[in-house]
Design brief:
Structural class: mainly alpha
Strand content: under 5%
Number of helices: 8
Distance between the termini: 40 Å
Largest sheet: none
Order of helices and strands: HHHHHHHH
Helix content: over 70%
Length: 250
């Protein structure tokens, strides 16, 4: 059934690398460095403290990532839970993942299948991110629909004729919100369309390599591509969350 996922949430090499380069890990290492310098410790202890704080930050980030993925997987992805154009992106992402699953099932055991399994986890993360972005974008779209721009413009004209500047300023502010939300929706649509297409392209290429019995090394670049797409989707989701949380885009 679409959206149902039963895979565990493993610790992969790429997930560890992402955690190690996360802002939390780097900030923790910086904090350790500051403490070491202020306490006047030896070089050996300085290096040890920086590495320890970095490891703690990376471990915390990895734990949060695993918890986030596990929580997302407990939720069934339903393309019909969002409207267009978001539904289209979610549906296409799910279709790509299902096609990837078919290729993975047909792959013979060995290094190629192992590499495909690793990429499959990243693909699943990408699909989950597409779903989360789609839901947040749907919320922004609904907020925009509540702002009736034509009616607001007519009201503004009336208020300006009456020379009621305080009320007119309030209406202009609402129109400004509508314009900013339009910009957010347009930008999100373009970015999500591009990222979903890149994810689908990588899946198609991985399926091709598997079908032609290529080398597992042929999939290394594809795995990096999928990871990059996932990272960009995460950034898009975070930006949308900030917009939704503040009530308006800055």
């Amino acid at each position: 059934m679409l959206g149902d996922v039963s895979l565990p949430v493993p610790v992969t090499q790429r997930s560890v690398v992402r955690a190690g380069m996360s802002p939390v890990a780097l900030a923790a290492a910086g904090g350790g460095l500051v403490v070491a310098l202020l306490t006047g410790t030896t070089l050996g202890w300085l290096v040890s403290l920086v590495l320890l704080t970095w490891a703690v930050g990376a471990g915390a980030t990895l734990a949060l990532q695993r918890a986030s993925v596990a929580a997302g997987r407990s939720e069934r992805i339903d393309p019909f839970g969002v409207g267009e154009p978001w539904r289209h992106f979610v549906r296409d992402a799910l279709t790509s993942r299902n096609r990837f699953d078919e290729a993975l099932r047909d792959a013979r055991p060995g290094p190629l299948r192992d590499r495909l399994s690793d990429i499959r986890r990243s693909v699943d993360s990408g699909v989950q991110e597409v779903w989360q972005v789609a839901k947040q974008a749907q919320n922004v779209s609904q907020a925009r629909q509540r702002l009736d721009a034509p009616t607001l413009r007519r009201r503004l004209e009336t208020l300006e004729e009456k020379d009621n500047e305080p009320a007119a300023a309030a209406v202009r502010s609402q129109l400004g919100s509508a314009e900013r939300l339009d910009a957010v929706i347009a930008d999100t649509t373009a970015r999500l369309e591009t990222l979903e297409a890149r994810l689908t392209e990588a899946v198609a290429r991985a399926i091709e390599v598997s079908a032609l019995a290529g080398q597992d090394d042929d999939l290394v670049g594809l795995g990096s591509t999928v990871d990059q797409v996932v990272n960009e989707l995460e950034s898009l989701r975070a930006a949308l969350a900030e917009t939704s949380g503040s009530g308006h885009p800055d």
